[in-house]
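User: I'm writing a short methods note and want a consistent example. For DUF4154 domain-containing protein, I'll paste the sequence; you return only the structure tokens, no commentary, since I'll be parsing the reply automatically.
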Amino acid sequence: MTGFSILVLAVFATLHAAPVPLDASTDTPAYTRALSPREGPPDPREISAREARLLIRTLDYVRSIKPKSPLTFAIVFDPENKVSSQEAERLAELLDAAPQSDKGKLEPLLIPLTNLNQSLKHIQVLYLTHGLKPFYTVISERAALYGLLTLSTDPSCVRANGCVLSIQTESGIDILINKKIMKRNRIDFEAAFQFAAQYL
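Assistant:
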């Protein structure tokens, strides 16, 4: 095992300690449900509970995000794209059931592309689903205006200057950061996290 792999495992060791508990404190989800009920089998790229925990844990290493409760975790999706819509709904469910981050209790918020022109000043994090490649530029520019941390599990988002950071778990834990977009959005990561990531 390489030194890089050991460091990645050390940074995220606490993610594997316990499963995500169900939230029985409320009868309705805390997020805004903007989607119709899911139909058919899930897409093979559907986000997993492990990936959701990694996204939550990542926030703890972002110095530019101040503790706040609730902390709005927005998920932008294309309502015309089934893969994008299903991923958005699944992630919102996982975040709503997740334990509190060190930054505060997360409040998922679904944002269809058609509503992206609304004010984002109350949002701290913006997640981009798969299927948004044609819209990377406009989403990235909107996020830059508010200094948002933009995340995805699709590495093409980082490579195409659409996101600050992507996380993949297909072969271990792969963290990819777009240094240009990180600086433009004024995102500041803890040193330990930076060492565990690869930069473009």
